[in-house]
Amino acid sequence: MDIKAADVAKLRAMTGAGMMDCKKALVEANGDFSRAQDIIREKGKLVAAKRADRTATEGVVVSKIVGQKGYMICLACETDFVAKNADFINSAKEILDIAVEADAADIDALKAYVSGGKTVAEIVTEKSGQTGEKVELAYYGKIEAPKCVTYIHMNNKLGTLIGFNKDIDAEVAKDVAMQAAAMAPIAIDKGDCDPKVVEHERMIGREQARQEGKPEAMLDKIADGKVNKFLNENTLLNQALVKNNKLTVRAYIQSADKDATVVAYKRFSLND
Fold it and tell me: Same domain for 131 and 69?
C-alpha cells in the first residue's frame, strides 16, 4: 500500500526507530499504527536476541538527586558512536526519570516497572532495534540520606552517589564524590567491608610474609598490618584525600563539620 511520508515521520516520532524501519513496519502492518509499533518492538527484540552474545562496553552513566534520594543508571551499548548520540543520551535520561518515578529498590524491580504500557526492560529492548546494537540497562543504584550528592565524570562513563548524615558544605560534598570516583573505594569504612575480602587480604599478607622468610610466629601480626594498610587505602573515609594527602577523607569532612560523615555510597564505571 502507499505509505505517506507524514505517517512514517509520525511512527518515527512515536518509536524513535529509523525512517526505513518505520516505513517497512507500516507496509507490513497495512498502515495500522498500533501493529506497526508492535513490529518495531518485535524488531528490537530480534536485534537484541541476535546480539545477545555481544558485549555492551560503551554507554552513558546519568544520575539525579531528588530531595533526600539519589538515583544513578547506566545505559550500555556496543560502540562509542552510539553512546555519544544525543537520542541515546536522552533515552538514558528518560529511563533515569522512570527510575525516579518508580523509586525501585533494585535493578530487577526497575526492569519490571511499567511506564507508558511497557516495562523498562521492554523499553531498553526497543533501543536495540532503534540503534542496531545490543543495549542493556547495565546498572541501577539508589541511595537515601539527609544530604545526597552526585558526580558524573566528563566522559559520562563514571559516576558516584554519596549520602551524608547531615547537610554539609557543597564544596566538601563534591570533593568527596570526586574522591570516590577517582579512588574507587570498596566500602565507606573498615567495618563495612565484606569479611570474605578482609580474610582474603589476610591470607595474601600471610603468604607474602612467608615468602619473604619471616618467622612463622610473626605471620599473623604482619598479615594484620597488611590488612589494615589495605583497608586504609580502599575504604572511603580512611583514604588519603586526593586534593590534600595530609588529610584522610574523614578528617576533611570533620574539618567542615565534626559531626558529619558518609552514610551511603554507590559507584559505577563502564571502564572497571
Answer: yes
